[in-house]
């Protein structure tokens, strides 16, 4: 596209120097999701302002460059990125030949993502990757090979798990780990899991006050991936991070998948146009249309599995659009022998995630109340103003606004952590086996659901 070529020329003119030698350079490869730009919403002391971009010519890279330009031109705390762009069909081969930077940033079309990861690692480049890293069992095998190659070559391959920096998730974890309050984790069963996480999302929504435009390919599950392999990565990550902190999970012996299901969300041609801006379904989706000309998109799913003897359940739902005033939601339940710790984000909570504590069935409410008072007092050092208020038969953990950080800011948090690991030359020992276990669960669950 002409606009992309013009932006490329301007970017080359701006990139007079390659920057400071003691800083790392980012290489953005085939950006197709707005998360690619969110990595660059902030500047980083350790990262050179010059970013190398390799992508096929088209709207995905053009949208990414526009967003970086907005960050550079905003009035409050503008960024100062310089983008050196190569746009062409041989973008991957060109990047591998050039090897211009240190960290490949991946966020976009997932069909080739595992291939991009493996090629980047084999070329000697670190990889900072948006979820999901892979969307089927074939690509899972390629991902395992990429992790093995990274280990051999001293490279860091890491996925962007933003929800670990969500205040409600942090508080839920801290409350669950408090044995005096929570007790021991229940083992649960497929009929009554010990941990349940449910996530509801919407294809059409507003981000930063503007309608979010999805790429045309977003509704092709061979390119985006089905619901069971996408948002579920966050849910599984939080389960591991909360139930088994800093413990390595070996998927070969620690994971048993009990059952899995999938179902579609249907989109009319008008809905497809509303969310993509494309007036009709592209040719690659036409074979998937039903007799009414409606697209069934398998974005929904659920799975129950056992991890180190604990039974867990995840569920993801994608509706087209939220009801008036509604938003994406996350519900999370951890059942302990003394108390349950829950995140709710419904209409009662004004669609803002809130943490609750309830006595376990047969538990002593007075004992839970005393433990909770002590725990909240201790947590006030990290979360000033935190308090517990009675709410029905349980307690609402009231989180001051100053302790909450928005989703987009979490990308900075993850990048800061990754840059710290890069400076040390290693990830925590449990991170790699747990990433592998996470993608084993998602891809195996999908395989089971399709049977």
What would you note in describing this structure?
The chain has 451 residues and is α/β, with parallel strands linked by helices. The protein folds into 2 domains: 2-160 and 411-426, 3-Layer(aba) Sandwich (Rossmann fold); 164-406, Dihydrodipicolinate Reductase, domain 2, CATH 3.30.360. 35% of the residues lie in helices and 24% in strands. The chain has 15 helices and 17 strands. The chain has a 9-stranded mixed β-sheet. The longest helix is centred in the last third of the chain and has 20 residues, at 431-450. The model is unreliable at 1-20 (pLDDT under 50).
What keyword list fits this structure?
about 450 residues; alpha/beta; Rossmann fold; Dihydrodipicolinate Reductase, domain 2; 2 domains; 15 helices; disordered N terminus
User: What radius of gyration results from the CA coordinates?
Assistant: 22 Å
Number of helices: 15
Fraction of residues in β-strands: 15-25%
Provide the residue-averaged pLDDT.
Answer: 94
Mind summarizing the main beta sheet? 9 strands, mixed
Q: Total number of β-strand segments?
A: 17
The assigned CATH architecture of the largest domain is: 2-Layer Sandwich
CATH class of the largest domain reads Alpha Beta
- Overall SS class: alpha/beta
Helical proportion? Answer: 25-40%
CATH homologous superfamily classification of the largest domain: Dihydrodipicolinate Reductase, domain 2
- Stated plainly, the CATH topology of the largest domain is called Dihydrodipicolinate Reductase, domain 2
